[in-house]
Write a structure and sequence with these properties.
Shape: globular
Largest sheet: 6 strands, antiparallel
Structural class: alpha+beta
Strand content: 25-35%
Number of helices: 3
Helix content: 10-25%
Radius of gyration: 20 Å
Distance between the termini: 48 Å
Length: 163
Amino acid sequence: MPLVLTPIREYLDGHVPSGLEWEIAPDRELTVDNAAGEALRTAYADVITPFEQALMPLRIDGAADLQPRAKVWKWEEHLLAGTFDLWLCDDPDRAHTWLVVSVGLWTEPQLFDQEPAARLGHFDFTPHQPLLFLPRPPGPATLTARVTGGAFPHKNSSRRGTA
């Protein structure tokens, strides 16, 4: 058991039924997921930071309580693919859903037919969905920001620009 958890376990021992068998282990998947997300965030700071600086003060409806997320969705040897999402506000057209800004590279369908992205396959990303790749593709890239509403959005919009 990691030493840092000893005070927590001792505290809980006084508040939960006795005889509890403790099983304490690090969540390796969450740890790796967080590290990979931070690697994406660092590699794409020039893309992500301007959106965060512009949009963070505008977030309402509790969105400010939700941390922006760089999430790796697919791992392959020497290649990661993921997304960056920033919750903005409640979707005024759909109850109990969010408007979410996603930022990344503009992905054409044929991107997944070229190495190294071909190794990832078509893994449930739609064409033109903003994606982040590590290693970052060399040269100029077309960037996109997409606003979607809801878990299964029926409306979205994208704007592209080259950087």
